[in-house]
Amino acid sequence: MKPGVRALGVAESYRERDGRDRNRSTLAGAVVRADRVCDGLAYDACTVGGTDATDAVIRLVDEVGRPDVRYVLLGAVAPAWYNLLDLSRIHEAAARPVLAVTFEASDGLAAGLEDAFSGTELEQRLATYRALPARRDLTVNDETVYVRAVGLDPDEADDVVRSFTPVGGRPEPIRVARLAARAADSYARSFE
Q1: N or C end of the chain: smaller count of CB under 10 Å?
Q2: 112-161: per-residue pLDDT in tens?
Q3: Which residues cross the membrane (predicted)?
Q4: What is the pTM of this model?
């Protein structure tokens, strides 16, 4: 992959403030080139336990407003306590491939959703969860990550993840977005 190819990484940060739960989670978007140069940041928020994370990610893509971004890399499929992302909707709105890259083995989210929600809230989340593409494991730099992709075939998705992961197992756009989200969360806390 050419060094100037860009991806938008999206990650979240949520921290309790002074022992109090908050109802918002900070999302950050980081435009990062394949050669590890950060080329832009944007911020938004979503509701903890809500259903607005997909809209927040779409707003981040719009806010960045970068037609040169070729991929959207998400650091979760269920940020902000099961605020599930609809990867197909993000792909359609962004008009570019979307990859969710996660970092822990899991038996899936269904049992957790069933413990946390009921009725319509549960059914809506289960429908979004079941519509996600299959999660595949991928070895990157001797680490295992788990990838879901919309808008490109599995081999291409593997190439994208590896190209944006020069060291370790976390793709650089997601790593930078996570750092930015944590910094923004800490900064916002200073005003409370």
Answers
A1: C
A2: 999 999 999 999 999 999 999 999 999 999 999 999 999 999 999 999 99
A3: none
A4: 0.95
In the chain, the largest separation of any two C-alpha atoms, in whole Å, equals 48
Do residues 6 and 32 lie in contact, with contact meaning Cβ atoms separated by under 8 Å?
yes
Rounded-to-integer distance, Cα 166 and Cα 159, Å: 12
* Amino acid of residue 22: R
pLDDT digits (tens, 9 = 90+) for 18-34: 555 579 999 999 999 99
- Of 39, 20, 4, residue with least CA distance to 180: 39
Distance CA(124)–CA(52), nearest Å, equals: 12
CB 13 within 8 A of CB 1: no
Q: Which residue has the tokens 């969860």?
A: 129
Question: What gap in Å lies between CA 182 and CA 160, rounded to an integer?
Answer: 25
